[in-house]
Amino acid sequence: MSVDAPPSSTDGGGIWSPPYLPITLANLTVVAIAAFDGLAIVAALPAIADDLGDVALLPWVITAYLAASAIAGVTAGPIIDAIGVRRTFRVTGLWFLATSAAAAAAPSMPILVVARGLQGIGGGLVISVALTAVGLSYPHRLRPRAFAANSMVWGVMGFGGPVVTAALLTVGGWRSIFVIQLPITAIAIAAGWRTLPSTRDAPRRINTDVAGVALITALVATSLLAVSQVGVRWWLAGVATIGAIAFGAGFWRHIGRSADPLVSREHVTRFPLRRVHVTSGLVLIAGLAADNYLPLYMQTTRGRSESFAAFSVLFLTVGWTLAALAASRILEHRQEADVIVLGSSIMPPALLIAGLAVATDAAEAIVFTGFFLMGTAIGFVSTSGLTLMQSSAADDEMGRVNSAHQFVRTLCITYGVAAGGAILLFVVDRRVGNVEVVRSVLQGDDVSTSTSSLEAIRDGLAWVHVFAGVVAAGCLAAAITLRRDVVRRNRTPAGT
């Protein structure tokens, strides 16, 4: 196979066959880095605070990474389309390697926060490269399997990540979390250095949409500020939300008027991209709004240990992973829109099962069954949506299409978590007049909780499921509309 082009779409075999094996290894290693970083850093926060102090800056160890990653993810599209997947991967891989080393060596909390922000730039770019590489490296029949393999890595890291993290913290301290990323990143760079597709014989000038970058940065910053102030300063959360809406509207107006925008409107609204963005975003909001607070409920209302509560989120992850694997097989015989409808149809009853189980103090097995089915719904919708999206994109716009979708997903996850937290804290505040106990548990403090607070947390999570159910209904409506439009277009003769 030529090093400058992906294997022919007529090649046989799967993603593990010799023509695709180096690409698969490179992609999965990149995904493993992102999955491990997300799981490990949260667990390492107490050790970081104990070593470096400046506890007030501790949340920014995660927030700085997420903000930079979201911004870099959407700006990655024009870069990839201008200079190609392989060149972007090389530069960003080396960048991530260097910034991981800087984070490991950070002597103070402010420097660690800066290093994490720089690391987030590389993280956002590398993940966008991985998604784009799937669309450019594999034929349509193998893309669902590639996305399923990515989900499998997330699932494996969900099980093994906490164990590895605990061992690293015991043996080498929090710095070892960053040190271990160095050889993994080096392996990914080596695997993809010459195997990822080079979509440009000669690089073009990279689009420098300064106004677009500024507006998207302001949107991300105000969105994260709004999330961070939920339950802390409601007035500031409201102001930040209004600011996020204003910056979002400004960005939308800008990309409609600019001759060479960061992201074109067609990459958001063109058929079937708009429906894919909507269904994928809504299913993530519906599932993660509740799942993010399941450990809190398990640790308080159910009286479970912190370790048990932490592992409770794995049921959604397992459902997501298994559904992605199943979708990769189903899509060999059914259209993507059919599988999106299937996943969207699973979410409402899944939320009903989990919500009723929470509200009535039913057996934990029923709660976990509901969350497993919620993950199943996400897996079906997400995998099929990515496949449909990439099948509708040309090679020279694959970077921008994937980056736009990834940005939508990131914002929806952020808003879903924020909405779930706002509802939970609102119910607790109305019932007991004090939300400090919720924040204390979320921060890992060992606190005693009154019976009224336990019941308020339970009812709050139940109302989160009600909100998620409304969102899931919207997702199902959008999925049905997408399938109807796909069927209609397939029946319409070309050129009419």
Structural summary, described in words:
The protein is mostly helical. The chain folds into three domains: 18-193, Growth Hormone, Chain: A (Up-down Bundle); 208-261; 264-488, Growth Hormone, Chain: A (Up-down Bundle), CATH 1.20.1250. 77% of the residues lie in helices and 0% in strands. The protein contains 19 helices and no strands. The chain has helices spanning 21-52, 60-83, 85-104, 109-137, 143-172, 175-179, 181-192, 210-228, 234-257, 266-269, 273-291, 294-300, 306-311, 314-330, 336-359, 364-391, 398-432, 436-442, 451-491. Helix 1 (21-52) packs antiparallel against helix 7, helix 5 runs antiparallel to helix 14 and helix 17 (398-432) packs antiparallel against helix 19 (451-491). The model is unreliable at 1-6 (pLDDT under 50).
Short description:
By secondary structure, the protein is mostly helical. Helices cover 77% and strands 0% of the residues.
Number of continuous helical runs = 19
CATH topology of the largest domain: Growth Hormone, Chain: A
For the biggest sheet, the summary is: none
The pLDDT mean sits at 84
Category from helices, strands and their pairing: mainly alpha
* Low-pLDDT stretches: 1-6
Give the overall shape: globular
Radius of gyration: 22 Å
Question: Which terms would index this structure?
Answer:
19 helices, Growth Hormone, Chain: A, 3 domains, 496 residues
